[in-house]
Amino acid sequence: MTRSFTIDNDSKVLNPQKFIQKERAQSKLRIDQINTFLENTPQRRDLTHSLIEEICNDPVLKTDTDYYDQTKSQQRLETAKKIARLSLYMEHDIKTIRNQFKGTDLIKELQNDTEHKLPSLCNEDLSIFDKRLSLVANIDPQLGTRVGVHLGLFGNCIKGNGTDEQIHYWLQERGALFIKGIYGCFAMTELGHGSNVAELQTRATYNPKSDTFSIDTPDLTATKWWIGGAAHSATHSTVYARLIVEAKDYGVKTFVVPLRDPATFQLLPGVSIGDIGAKMGRDGIDNGWIQFRNVVIPREFMLSRFTKVLRARDGCISVKTEPQLDSISGYSALLNGRVNMVMDSFRFGAKFVTIATRYAVGRQQFAAKKGQQESQLMDYPLHQYRVLPQISIAYMISPAAFKLMDNYYTTLNELYKVSSSDKSALMRVSQKLKNLFIDSASLKATNTWLVAQLIDELRQSCGGHGYSQYNAFGKGYNDWVVQCTWEGDNSILSLTSAKSILKKFVEAGTRGKFDRELDTESFSYLKPSFLRNVIMGGEEAELNKIEDYYLVWAIALVKLLNHTARLIEKTKKIDGVSKLLILISKFHALHSMLKAYHDKLNSDSESYITDENTRSVMWDIYKLFSLYFIDKHSGEFQQFKIFEPDQISQDVQPQLLQILPKLRNHCIALTDSFKFPDSMLNAPIGYYDGDIYNNYYNEVIKNNPVESDGAGRPVYHELLSSMLKRGFEFDERLGGAAKSEILARLAK
Amino acid sequence: MTRSFTIDNDSKVLNPQKFIQKERAQSKLRIDQINTFLENTPQRRDLTHSLIEEICNDPVLKTDTDYYDQTKSQQRLETAKKIARLSLYMEHDIKTIRNQFKGTDLIKELQNDTEHKLPSLCNEDLSIFDKRLSLVANIDPQLGTRVGVHLGLFGNCIKGNGTDEQIHYWLQERGALFIKGIYGCFAMTELGHGSNVAELQTRATYNPKSDTFSIDTPDLTATKWWIGGAAHSATHSTVYARLIVEAKDYGVKTFVVPLRDPATFQLLPGVSIGDIGAKMGRDGIDNGWIQFRNVVIPREFMLSRFTKVLRARDGCISVKTEPQLDSISGYSALLNGRVNMVMDSFRFGAKFVTIATRYAVGRQQFAAKKGQQESQLMDYPLHQYRVLPQISIAYMISPAAFKLMDNYYTTLNELYKVSSSDKSALMRVSQKLKNLFIDSASLKATNTWLVAQLIDELRQSCGGHGYSQYNAFGKGYNDWVVQCTWEGDNSILSLTSAKSILKKFVEAGTRGKFDRELDTESFSYLKPSFLRNVIMGGEEAELNKIEDYYLVWAIALVKLLNHTARLIEKTKKIDGVSKLLILISKFHALHSMLKAYHDKLNSDSESYITDENTRSVMWDIYKLFSLYFIDKHSGEFQQFKIFEPDQISQDVQPQLLQILPKLRNHCIALTDSFKFPDSMLNAPIGYYDGDIYNNYYNEVIKNNPVESDGAGRPVYHELLSSMLKRGFEFDERLGGAAKSEILARLAK
């Protein structure tokens, strides 16, 4: 049935597209300017758009609604096809960066460059592909992970722990970074140990006679578990195992261990691998388990940047280790993933608010008065409260995510360059890494949680249609929530980052310690003069000037930190305040996000917003974010005397209620500004034209063809009809269990 | 690899079962007594246990971990098999109730009883089967729904809207209530209308010449949508359609419309049906869409209890309607589902807290000091804060759920008995129904939300293993969350119930209106003397005596209602306070739950807890629930001046922190008390013996046999190996695009 079949032209045919088109036409917002703001710079924006176009046009990479009907094995296969496709883009992207398409084959040169004559492959070389991968992961998260494990985890483990020669060999000469030659996985987690890496039990025992290591799984709980890529695609693995030399345990180190012959995909001797099977989401990833039984690798396969097993000419064995650097590298291994997850939070948040906003504008339900046209969902204040703050969340993540990403690359480059003999430079970069760890941990935890709630809340706001797989929320949520658990469980990350913040707070408060160069950006609220002022009651929280909306969080942080520190002082137990520590990490993230957004929008050179009206709406978004979370945390704001109860009733909540209807008028433009094409949303109730019902209906029809046994007739129809037509003869067949005459005869 | 393969007996083999066994052995709690409390009465408890045993032993009904690997079509088929199996239990259960297995075949008698000589089938006849269905739905929610749509929605629609004769014919003689003869679906929702039932657009136009109705779908948005059972299994439907007689629209009424021939499952003429396809969860339900094109049914198929189309001998047509009764029946149609969802909330909550608690006790991670044994997760205060309040939620739902269920059956029986001429009795029952609506709406919304959060929070608390499908959380969550949307969207239900509460508040406050008989149970906080006291400041919130822990919520409700009423007075807009209305509904539910639990535990005859120590722990659970939600809502508690900021810091939070470690010691016993057998949990990390790692590993191995192409070798291995071994010849194959010599030749 299509629109033309309507049998009565007087009937109420809902026409959602007209609302969306009307609101779009009425908006005066400069969505191009907003898009540049959200994509950080004009250069980055242009790259984003051109990559999105390529992905959505690519016959293998593009993703349609049939995606939501794939079984686990189909997902595995389709993902593998897409990886093979991406491997070609990878070569192309590196050639683009180095501007070398003619003359010689760059990839061949790089792979053959055993003597390091060319500049080695570096992060810059991968920058286009990284962005491509991040965008493709927005459409197909399991694809993103499956490649990300190889490049990000396997690759970064080698980069962080390998010597220069090892990095060059595995990643460049063997082709790993071109997705060639070998495919890697990252065997850290075990069945019995996830977060506590230091207690992993897999062993790498050095054999002096053969100058090799034996890799062994000592018992079931030491089975490598959840290893992405292990079940089917990895030929090699970086394995976290205890280094044991001459019966001494040197703790957990990393080793490159071949798993399969890349030509035949046969498992190598001693390697047992199985499939972890069905997961809540991301079934396209072949997570597996691995057990090792006397798997022998050369000594040289141990990643030896900071710890080396040395063999003297006389056969004497020694272990040389640099514990401080080793621990620094510990910081860096999982950082990349966390930084990327903050960027993912921006794009996933943006995607789902776009879908839900368009639906809320197009969908009508209930009339204000009998006989009137039914109201658009978005006109209900409750609906505005449910949806609009979620738009502000997506907006507020962007500047912080780009800033964190830039900070990550700068700091890591510095780390790779620093010489291990230059202790003071090393201390400096180690301090930077610690700050980066705090920021990335608190932003990762806070935003992956926020976006999980965002997807859930917005799915509910789309009612029943939100529960259909074809509208993206279901798989979207299932794929998303693992981000709260992997590469640092959110609770543990929050605790760890909060403990570091607390330590800084105590040092700043008691000893006036504050590093002007390193701490000003993220820890401005720890400036000793500010601290003192807040604690002495000299800083009153207000919500008048623009900067107040982030400063109020600085005040809140100090008061929360102060309350927490005093509690610990009293109870002597830091674990007892862990609920408060989680809050500290969250408040730190909210403050950073507001500040980064504020500073960018306030900057002449970096905001790219020249239109005054647009800028003013962008400030409303910022205020909404701050007010929404003050209201959500009004318990803490009152308890720690940041605001009086009456200020909540008479200032915070009224401001919040005033700002929502203002932003409501711009909601279509604000979500259009993300510039997601329909093929990236892959959710018919959220397509650009707003023709919600026809779009959704058409996708349902396309994906659910007539049953093979006839329309509406399931293949198991005989089962049903024989159930329904079972008659009274059931009792007869049992011998007439109920029949008195028979029972009487039987009783004779 | 099994335990016996451990290669080194000195290695740290984690041994979770010893912790669980130890804590179980140490507990002095009387779990039998607690179980009786939770299952309401000894009689109900015994029935529950015997039904659970039957279900878990039944070769068709039992559910194993392979359940989590089924594709959509497998789920559809398996569910149909289970329905056929349940249909036999149904007959058996009715015979059990009527105690008639011999002499004559009861089912045959009931179906042939066209002259109403026997007592008609009633709710009591179905009481065993209802419980059976509710329990089976805990193991396999989609099965529960698929049968529930037929019995609960199709059946109750006929019961609520049909004449006695229509009820007797469709449900008893045709066999529907025995799952025989016909299978029904419930065609209410349309693509364009869900919550706003009055605006449904499907039409039933009366044809005077043939004395029939034509059922028609006027346009795409009027397509019946989301109809459970429509895609594949329903032979008949109750259809919500506008009654149109002589061009006059009488609004939405209900009709029985045949869809398929029950013998062949062919669709009938004019009926178009399709599959809605993939959903976020519950794919075993065959939700479908239906379009009608001139589908003709006899006039007598209109359900005519309150509205009749009458045809006089002279052919004159009239419509007789009883609008008041019609609207009462409107209340009752979806009530059953809501009442059941509160009971589901108890059982689902209980299931997931059992799994997460056992995992938290068995799992170790990180040692307090180097060299010490790693701590059990449950020993971390943060973990206690994440898990223990969730146990209290499951506990607190139970008494309220049973009370609501009993109240529902009493009131409905009264409604069905009352004569439509007895206006005063009718007013009375209508008042009871309204109260029941408020309670069921606020309890349904609050508890389905709470349990959605509970599942999510507890999945996260199980880390990575919580993300595995085999540990129940993934599908459990996906199956669960639709409860927040269907049969009354939670937001809309909350708003509607809160508006009614607000109306009662205003009437009690301004006119002293309070119905001692009807309102005392659920609306005790609206007693005018209490209201006055609270508003005048004569009632101070305290947390000392046992009853304070629910009374504090009564005070909170009055203050919240008062604040809301004043805001509306000021702004004249009720929509503006909808965020507060949602809170009113939630506070009402929390108060009812605490009060029901308090009254039961406090009762000599109804608590069944005779052991003092056990009772005292049960009171701690109750306090924990109250404290946890006061702390969660500390914003409102301070804003509405129920507590001062310092009371939160010095009383509420310290009490909360003190109670958690106390309850921690009993957590295994408290969850054992739910008495869920392993086969009902269907989650190996939560099995009774606590052998977490072996159990989980074994299920993974069982469900993921070696790949058909060889161990660890995917069927698509050639795709991967050809990707990896692509060499430099790629460029050659393109004609040597990079080769200067060739390009030079081409340039000549």
Question: What is the name of the CATH topology of one domain in chain A?
Answer: Butyryl-CoA Dehydrogenase, subunit A, domain 3
Spatial gap, N to C terminus of chain A: 68 Å
The low-confidence runs of chain A, each spanning 5 or more residues with pLDDT under 50, are none
Chain pair forming the biggest interface: A-B, 173 and 173 residues
Chain-averaged pLDDT of chain A: 94
Fraction in helix of chain A: 40-55%
Estimate the strand proportion of chain A: 5-15%
CATH architecture descriptor text of one domain in chain A = Up-down Bundle
**What is the multimeric organization of the chains shown?**
homodimer
Which descriptor suits the 3D outline of chain A?
A: globular
Provide the gyration radius of chain A in Å: 30 Å
Largest sheet properties of chain A: 6 strands, mixed
Structural class of chain A: alpha+beta
Q: Number of DSSP helices of chain A?
A: 27
Level-1 CATH class name of one domain in chain A:
Mainly Alpha
Number of strands of chain A: 13
- Please, what is the CATH homologous superfamily of one domain in chain A? Butyryl-CoA Dehydrogenase, subunit A, domain 3
What does it look like?
- The structure is a homodimer of 748-residue chains.
- Chain A has 748 residues and is of the alpha+beta class.
- Chain A contains 27 helices and 13 strands.
- Among the domains of chain A are: 182-323, Butyryl-CoA Dehydrogenase, subunit A, domain 2 (Beta Barrel), CATH 2.40.110; 334-705, Up-down Bundle (Butyryl-CoA Dehydrogenase, subunit A, domain 3).
- Chain A has helices at 16-26, 31-38, 42-57, 72-98, 106-112, 127-139, 141-161, 164-173, 323-333, 335-362, 381-417, 423-461, 473-480, 490-511, 516-519, 528-535, 548-571, 578-602, 612-632, 634-639, 645-664, 667-672, 678-681, 692-703, 717-724, 729-733, 740-747, and strands at residues 184-187, 203-207, 212-216, 224-227, 236-245, 248-258, 271-275, 288-292, 295-298, 307-311, 317-321, 364-367, 374-376.
- In chain A, the strands form 4 sheets. In chain A, strands 1, 2, 3, 5, 6 and 9 form a 6-stranded mixed β-sheet that branches. A 3-stranded antiparallel β-sheet of chain A has the order 4-8-7, with no helix packed on it. In chain A, strands 10-11 form a two-stranded antiparallel sheet.
- In chain A, α12 crosses α14, α14 packs across α18 and α19 (612-632) packs across α21 (645-664).
- Chain A is globular.
- The N and C termini of chain A lie far apart (68 Å).
- In chain A, 55% of the residues are buried.
- The model of chain A has no long low-confidence stretch (mean pLDDT 94).
- At the A-B interface, α4, α5, β7, β8 and β12 of A face α4, α5, β7, β8 and β12 of B.
